[in-house]
Amino acid sequence: MSGLFSRIINWSKSEAHSVVDQIEDPIKMTEQGIRDLKKDLTTAMQSLAQVKGIVIRMRNDVEKHKRLAGDYEKKAMALLQQGQGGAIEPTEAERLATESLSRKETSGQEALRLQKELIAQEDMSNQLQKNVDKLRSTIQRYENDLVTLRARAKTAAATKKLNAQIAQVDAGGTIAMLEKMRAKVEEDESLSKAYGEMADSNTSIDDQINKALSSGGAVPGASDSLAELKAKMGIS
């Protein structure tokens, strides 16, 4: 497991440095790193399952030998009671009880030995469990970082493309075209005004008079002219 976590640390360092240099390659490196870590996690979980299996079997063996030791002690007591009651020859009862106690001692010692090994295996199992949890947490964190990295890569690519398009725009050419268009419009407006003035200069005097009168000047009415003519002739 120490080698496994050394690989994790080394990979983390290389991943961090690569992100600074380029944006596309770190994504591929991160994806590959996560795939490698998931393989390591699978291997670590298989090892953890094996160790847990050993712990379970060893725990059962400890209980089994403790139970045997207790049973042999009960048998020794029963043998002594039967010897005292006359059911068994006392000397035979003591011999069998001694054998039973000897086996009780053997089972008890075996239970103690297995108990020590059990404690060591449980410590190993607990340590493996911590390492597996840490590795799983690391993978989850890297996967979250990968999601962020992908989003940043897309944003960076879009920004880069947009900036490139903006840089390629010919602002100078567009402004020159607008200035040329403005000059053409002003030229057309001047020509139109000139043609208007020329048309006015070709108008006859009568036309000019009529135009002036029609623009607001008062035209004497026919009734006024008739009264003026009668007055001149001396008639009413």
Folded structure, characterized:
The protein has 6 helices and no strands. By secondary structure, it is mainly α. The chain has a domain at 25-153: Helix Hairpins (Orthogonal Bundle). Helix 1 (2-21) packs antiparallel against helix 2 (24-85) and helix 2 runs antiparallel to helix 3.
Question: TL;DR?
Answer:
It holds the Pfam family PspA_IM30. The protein is mainly alpha-helical and 236 residues long.
Largest sheet: none
What's the pLDDT, averaged over the residues? 84
Q: Residue ranges: pLDDT <50 for 5 or more in a row?
A: none
Count of extended strands: 0
Number of helices: 6
Topology of this structure?
Elements: H1 2-21, H2 24-85, H3 90-168, H4 171-201, H5 205-214, H6 222-233
Key features of this structure:
PspA/IM30 family protein, coiled coil, single chain, Helix Hairpins, 236 residues, 91% helix, mainly alpha, PspA_VIPP1
